Structures are given as structure tokens and as C-alpha cells.
Records
---
Amino acid sequence: MRLSAPEKLRVHTATIKSVAKAAGVSTATVSRVLTGTDLVGDELRERVLKVVQKLNYQPNRMARGLRGGQRRMIGVIIPDLQNPFLTGVVHGVEAVLYEAGYTLVLGHSGGFPEREQAHLTGLRAEGAAGLILVPDNGDGANYAALAAWEIPVVAVDRVPKGLKVDLVSTDHYEGARQAVAHLISDGYRDIALINGPDGFSVTRERLAGYREALSQAKIPLREAYVIHSDFRQLGGAAAMNQLLDLPKPPQAVLVGNNLMTLGALEAAHKRRVRIPEDLGIVGFDDMPWAASLRPALTVIAQPIEELGRVAARLLLDRLAGKHRPVKQVILPPKLIVRASCGSHPA
Amino acid sequence: MRLSAPEKLRVHTATIKSVAKAAGVSTATVSRVLTGTDLVGDELRERVLKVVQKLNYQPNRMARGLRGGQRRMIGVIIPDLQNPFLTGVVHGVEAVLYEAGYTLVLGHSGGFPEREQAHLTGLRAEGAAGLILVPDNGDGANYAALAAWEIPVVAVDRVPKGLKVDLVSTDHYEGARQAVAHLISDGYRDIALINGPDGFSVTRERLAGYREALSQAKIPLREAYVIHSDFRQLGGAAAMNQLLDLPKPPQAVLVGNNLMTLGALEAAHKRRVRIPEDLGIVGFDDMPWAASLRPALTVIAQPIEELGRVAARLLLDRLAGKHRPVKQVILPPKLIVRASCGSHPA
DNA sequence: ATGAAAGCGCTAACAT
DNA sequence: ATGTTAGCGCTTTCAT
């Protein structure tokens, strides 16, 4: 698709040339005034500034970038714009990046590897200085090109397949272990796990934590109690239904993210399961609505914004030219006990 | 802040020149092959494509844009990245824009007018082809510059001060009217409104709808029942507390957005107010968690993604060069009755 | 301290 | 059908 009138569409904007002419100086002087790279006499500086003001002149970033200048743009790619965990991370990233004078460009893949790819190549063409990535569940082919493209990359929450980069993540193993241990101490024994999709690092780690807590309490693991869902609300509901349809339904469930928890809760309500009497629930992520749910939700809270802030700082370090080995920062989760699980009448 | 080693940082990337040399053709031929503007002989085309592949060449968008080419980037600015209503709108925008081959660059102001300003000038420098804007509550000074900058702009949800542009919005007047009328039909008479901040168009319209419904039922409006809050969770809680502290607290409340509703609900729970027996609640926006709240929430649902889609289409029209007068598209809201209001024992 | 001029990577007008 | 070249708006030597 081409624009209909490419020529006419050109907006008449002030350029460095028009400013120079109006101020009666050379373009170099204007550039110097604006970038502050070199001293300019007070009189000329004044004149230039005045004209810039009057013409509402704004240097063209493309032209600037072209001349080999510093790139001040950071790409951030997340799989889902509507997942509050992810937007929370972005919020943290931005707080730090903005402070450091970088612009953030946000892309999201919506679960389509080709979109992630499109954003990747787009950001490259746009000259992004660095990349913060919450990897989607592709086969890693996406990242092959990224490896060749030598800009700093930091991954958040999940390990990108086939890419050796810095990683910031919560300790999902410990989170799952704590949650299940808490449920056990409440008297629940038949405990299920609604986990993320197969293939994610988070998914593996949570499963490991779940196993550990069970084995610690000498409770055998039942395959039917571990379900792989899709991080989405509908998936959570489907998983819960599947569990409740079992000949021997679980007494408690640990759900692997915020949206799936919402779905699971809804499904339980529909079937008139009483929580926490008939079924205890612990969810991952403490969301603004967690306390207002029916019943108020016990959660494993991740330090969401901190994940983003740390990721941004790691990137800034690399951007500053620090060469150090690839690093993993693992932040601790926190159990927040509310009303969705309680003493089980075992 | 300057990068420490600007020179060394330049990533060695294939350019059109290196491709041309490697393929033994001129740069013009490479350009022609890649843009498809002109026919190129099969043999050369083959050769070029092969080299492009091998060198993993990616045309530099900045250089392209600089040459007066079409701009394919659309800026989207929202006040709050963490408000699911807003991310829902962006989702709708993107669906359409992506289809049309545009890239979306997302910025958010976080309630700071200077950040909105920064994004505006940034997008301008970056050469954005158009802008979709959910205005923040500034004094309109931000948009003065925007008016001079002659690119298409579409506003969503709120009327930007001092800017005459296309607008897409829900019928907030009708939404508020319906909600209050429903509460009245349920037997509630003392009905409060937790509204948005003063100065927003939405705020005015909802107040008008609220007034209309009351006057229709011949219920006098009480000033103390109308509270201006801030669209955030804490604000909603504070407003609810203020209402419940009144000598004569309301029997029902209409809350002006999703996050404030969460806060209001939490505050009511803390004070052990029974809903809907003691207090009926209707909230704006149907969110994924609305049905799982305690109690399930009656809401005025906005066609969130549709708002975004329509906005994107309006922008695409203008981008295609269609000149038509400024237009307002007002979409209908929908009342969804759940359990947070019910027959009131009047 | 200031100006002239080269050149960033690319496309398009002009040659051939 | 292909190559040569000018120039997009800017920064940055290199002169002066």
C-alpha cells in the first residue's frame, strides 16, 4: 500500500537550513547551538535560539541518527499488552529509562511469532540502541537474527530460547514451593497446579517448586493434577473445569498467573464450589483487584515494577559500554495470605 | 548524558553499498530490487536477493525516511499504560493499523503534561505520519504546537482542549443516565456519583446523564453526592469513604471508571457495608474481573476495542488524503446487570 | 568563534 | 534494463 500523494504530503517544516538563513548564520552554527557540542558566541547563540523559537524548529531525528549519532531509543517487546503483569514491568522499565534520557518504543506480539519478528526487524531498522524483551513462546528462530545484530538485550521473566543474554526474573521455583507448602500447612493434601504453556522456563520452574513442596510433605504427585494452560482467562476456566471433572477433584489449586486465576475463579463460582471450604486457591501475581475478589485472593506476589527497573538498569550498564559476563538477577516472591485458602476440614 | 564511546558503538551493519559491491551492481539496482519500484532483470535480481540474504541486510529506515519517503509510523499516546480500558483501546487501534501496514509507537504520559509534550515532540522528530491521542487533563498548552504541526490526529474518549480533531467516544451521557435509571428502578433513591476529575469532557457528560435520570424521577440532586475523584483506585476508595461518612450516606453509587470501582468496593468491604442490600453499586467499564468480584459487578460496558478500531480507521481515512470536516463518532454503551445492585428494601 | 564542505544510507531523477 | 548522481537534514571535520 502506498500513500496516494507522497509528494504533496510533505509537511512544510522548518529545517536547519531555513533556521540558518533566517538567523544569518551557517547551518553548522545552528547545529552547534542546539547540540551544545561547541561554544558559540553569545550574540549568535541568542539570534539562533530566537529564530528556533519563532519557527518552532525541531531537529529531524532521522537525519540526526543517520549521521552516526547516538541512538536514544530502546525497544521493549512484550507478548501481551493487556496483561497487567507485563504493563507493570514496562512501567518499571520506563521509570528508569526516562530518567536516563532514553525514549521507549513499545511493541507487542500478541502471541504471534511473526509479529515479534516484525517488531524486531522494525526496531533494528529504526536504529534502536538496546532491547528489553519478554520472550514469547516461539521456537527461538526469531532470536537467531537478533544474536547477529550486536546490540544489548535484556530478557525479563522468561529465558529466550537460543539467546544468551541478561535475565531478570522472579524466583518462580520458590514462589510455587511456598504457595504449595502454605496450602499443605492449611490441611489441603490433594493439590493441583494450573501451569503456563509447556516450553516456558517459568512453567518448568514452577512445576519444580510444586514437586518439591509435595515431596517434602511426602505427598505423591498425581499427573492429572498438573495442567498446562495458556496464561489467559479462558484457559484458566477450562483448566479448572477439567480439574473439577476429575473422579477425585483436588482440594486446592495453585494457578500460574493473574488472568488464569480470574478464569479459574469464575469457573468455580459457576459450579457453586465453595472457596475456601471446598477448594483452596492461591494465584500468582498480586493485582489491584485481588483483594476485592470473591473471596479475597491469596497470592504469590512478584515484584513487578522492580523487575522492569532492574532490567532497565542492566541495559543501561551495557549501553555504557560495560563488558561483563551474562548475568541473571532473580528476585524473591512474596506470599500474601488472604481468604481464598484456609484451614481445610481434612 | 552522552554515550561513552559513540564511535566505537557503531554496529557494523550491511549497507546498500556493501550489498551493491558484493553483488557487483549499482546501489540503485539494489534499491530497485528491494522497493520494487522498477523492473530489474531476473539475473541481477537473483544475485542481489542472494547477497541480501547472506549479509542479512536490512534497509535503514532513517535513511529511507529522510529521502522524503512515506512515513509508516503512527504515534499513540495514552495517559496511563496500566489502565486496562486504555490498553484495550490500543489493542483495537493496533488491529487495524497493523493490517494497513503501519507501525505503532506507543507513549504514555502517566499524568505528567510534560511527558505528553515530550512524546509529542519526539514523535514529530521521528516523523510520525499520524497521531491517536487519549488526551490527559492538561490546560491545552500541549496541543497548541500540535495544531501547527499538520498531521492527522484522532482523539479517543476525551475532547482535547483547544484542538479541533476527529473524536471517537462512548456516549457517556447515555451510559450514566441508564445506570442511574436502573438503580432507581431497583428502588434506590439516594444515589451518588463518583466522577472523574473536573475538566474532562467525560466527567461533564456523565454528570449530565446522572442529573437527567434523577430529574426524570423527580429526585432532587444533592451536591454532597457528587464527588470528583481521579480515575485511580486510591481515589475511588477515598471517595467511597467520604460518601459513607456523610450524615445521610447514599443507598447506591455509580462509579466513573474501572479502577475507582475497585477502590470503592474495597473501601465498602472494609467498613462491612453489605452490597447490594445496604449499598448498590454500578461501575463504568466491563473488565475481565468484573464477574468475579464480591459481588459480581453491574456495569456500564463501553465498546473498548471498537473505540480503538474506529479511531484507527478515521486516521487511515485522513492519511489517504480524504478531506472532510472534523467528525465525532459516538458509540453506544451497554448496561450489564449482575449482582452488585438489586431490589432495594425502600 | 565561525563557515565551508563532506558524508551518513538511501531513493529518484536523469542518463545511457 | 542498468548505472550515475543529486540531495533528503543533519553533524562534524577541516579550514579560516
---
Amino acid sequence: MPSWLEALARGRRRVRGGAALFNAGDRFHSLYAVHGGFFKTSMIDDEGRRQVTGFFMSGDLLGLEGIAAALYDVTAVALEDSEVFVVPYPLIEQLSRDKAASQRELHIALSREIAREHRLMLLLGSMRAEERLAAFLLNLSARFGWLGYSSAEFHLRMTRADIGSYLGLTLETVSRLFSSLQERGILAVRQRHVRVLDLARLQALAGSPGDSAQG
Amino acid sequence: MPSWLEALARGRRRVRGGAALFNAGDRFHSLYAVHGGFFKTSMIDDEGRRQVTGFFMSGDLLGLEGIAAALYDVTAVALEDSEVFVVPYPLIEQLSRDKAASQRELHIALSREIAREHRLMLLLGSMRAEERLAAFLLNLSARFGWLGYSSAEFHLRMTRADIGSYLGLTLETVSRLFSSLQERGILAVRQRHVRVLDLARLQALAGSPGDSAQG
DNA sequence: CGACCGTTTGATAGTGCTCAATTCAAGTGG
DNA sequence: CCACTTGAATTGAGCACTATCAAACGGTCG
């Protein structure tokens, strides 16, 4: 978890796979630093369609968007048994007043989330299905790498439907793309287990990079 | 402009239509509060495709995403002769340390920007072309209304290409949609001049609301 | 072992894109 | 004042991509 938050954590909270950490519309009071496990966030549009807006793993901060309206505006659900540090927002406000460094860190966290979403908008607005999936996989891969896990072989925690919703595709399209990438020798896929066989070609499909946080 | 920033503005800056206020990659130093005129922000993906990420008018804050990397990560271009207040970020940091209220306001501005992009992701990920344009127009309309202008009749400052880029559509599709909405008596469109003839039907197309800031 | 959820695969159709040709508006210069 | 230029917008035809509908398969957990 981000070091500047360590002093502020007030307890942990365990969340079972499938359970919600918070729901859209809940009163906002705390940020959550993921300490272990895996979360997805989603929201519902006026037509009732649910869309996944992000995936969060160790070190990522959940709840930033809640400050504005004093309500969380997404729902955060654990995709496996997970744990978070609970960081009450009032404490953060206070600490940032005392310590300039912490203040800046919070601003950076917020600002980084904005930048992340810029990239996602770019993906949703201008990439085709295969590019989207490639970019998504590279992002996941890089994040696993940073956490010390293999970046070449990993386990997807989310369903094809989750991926599709996040990328603006149907689950069938996602499934077909996995099959196609496998046939071409770029990936080895078995259910949710993914192995990257040809990183260079995967990067070429995505238009290159695979960094940036909080996919 | 947001009242909490008034005390911090250090001068104004005029920007001619077509000129850039800042470019992606420039060193970050200030936020800008739009005081008059109209801006678009855009960024470039790895394939070199440019995409519009937002439109900004009086009262909106530009540059928030620059805090994270100490670099602006979008380019802000004036779509007509415009004016901004320049608010140096170090001053903001300092004020937020002294005044809890200002600190919270900044957090809210950042957080609101995150929420705005959530909605845009929803739009890009799950709405069809016509829904997107309807939602876009309602958003613009509402914002003009808040500024005291007519919400039923207004002048688009951006080209069809800008709108298309923002909505993840081609300019031809945008143009066709305008024609179609006009034929159906929902809008009266002449070039960039738009008049809403049937608000209810426009809202129905979008799935209802038209609020939320910084479209 | 059976039930259930998730995934894969196929066939078909629809939506929006691409390419291309006009039309239109606003300037510019003769 | 009017040809001419230029950038934007409109419109059309055909097609590519992805969604939709449908069926079968697989893995996992009671």
C-alpha cells in the first residue's frame, strides 16, 4: 500500500469473493487501500446497463471518486477473498494539513486516477476489439510484474463478461479474441489461466506499452 | 470561476481561438480556471490517433490531471478567443494547508473530474451512436443553462470531427445523426447552430439526464 | 453424479466505418 | 463585387467489425 497512507490506516477489512466492499450511493467516509486480493468496480447507467470501470489489486486505492459527492459512485466487489486497509477520509484531510508531502501524495493519487481514465477513454473511443484486449492484457501483465508475480503467466480473476464490460465488448467477442490469439501462438489460454508466448506481437497489436496503474 | 480559487488567481491569460493553452508533455505548474470562451482537451495514443477527452467552458478547471506526473498529459486548445485565470499549483498546496475548506474544495474538484470520466466511460463503453450524441447535447445544453445562456438554443464551438472524436464516432456518423434528429423534429440544426425542439424525446434517446459537469 | 455457471463456437444481422463525391460557408485577393 | 480557395458538413454506397441469438461444452462444487 502507498507508504504515506500507512500511518492512517484504521484497521483492516476482509471481503469475501463476490461480496461488495461498498455500493454506489453509499455514504462516503473512507478510502480503501487494497492489501491483498482483487476487486472490480462497476456502475449502472440510466438504462440499467452495468459496466465495469476498473480492476484493483494490491497497492491500489479505492473510493477516490466518492469525495466529490460524499457518496461512492461505483460499486466495489471482491473477485476473490480480499483484504483492504480502511483509511477514514477525515484523517487524510487532517494529515495533509500537517504534512505537505502527504498532501501532495493524495493529490497525486487523485490526479493519477484521472490520467488512468483518460487512457481508458482513449481505448474505448478509438481502439478496435483486438487492440483493446491486447492493451488490457499488457496492463494486467505489467501490474502483476510490479507486485512481484510473473508478468508472463497469470490467472485472470474476472469473467469474460467482466472483461467485455470493461472493454466495451460482448463476452462472446472476448472469448473469440482469446481463441484467435491462441491460434496465432501469441497466448496460451486455458480458462482464466493466461500465458504470454509472444510479447512482441502482443505489444504490436496494442500499439505498444503496457504500463500505467489501476487497469 | 470556483470561489475558493479567486484568492489564488495570479493573473489572467488570453488565448486566441485555435491556440494551445498548454500541450501534453509540458511541465505542470498551474491550474487554469476558464473565465470566458471554450476549450477542448485531447491526447494522442501510441498509434498517433488523436482523441478529444473533454470540453471546458466558464467555471471549469483545466490541468488537474497534470498533478500526478508533474506534466500535463493532455493538450488544451481554445476553440474561440478565450480567457483563463492562472492558478499556480504551489499556492493551492499552501492554501489548502491553511484552510480546511479550500483543501476540501480541491479534493472535490479532483474527485468530480474522476466521476465525470466514469460517466464518459459508460457512454463510450455501452451506448450506441445516437444515445451518445443525445447525451452529449443534453450535457452541453445543461451547462449552457447553468451559465445563464439558453439551454434550448446554442452554438456549438467544435467541429463534427471534434464531437466524433469525443464520442468515439466518425464525423460522418455525427453528421448523419444530426440530420436524422432534424428530420424527426427533435432538433433544428444549421451548421453549428442547434435548437432543441423536443427535449423529452431527446432525453428519452439518451436514457434521461443531462446534468454533470465538464462534458 | 448432477446442476449450474462460465466459456466456446457457429450462423446471421445490424451498426457504424470507409471511401468518395458534393454542397456549403467564410475568407481572400483580384 | 465576384471568382477562387479552403475547411467543414452533408450524403451515398458498400463493407468490415462486432453484436445477437442459439447451441453445445467444460469445470466446479454441492
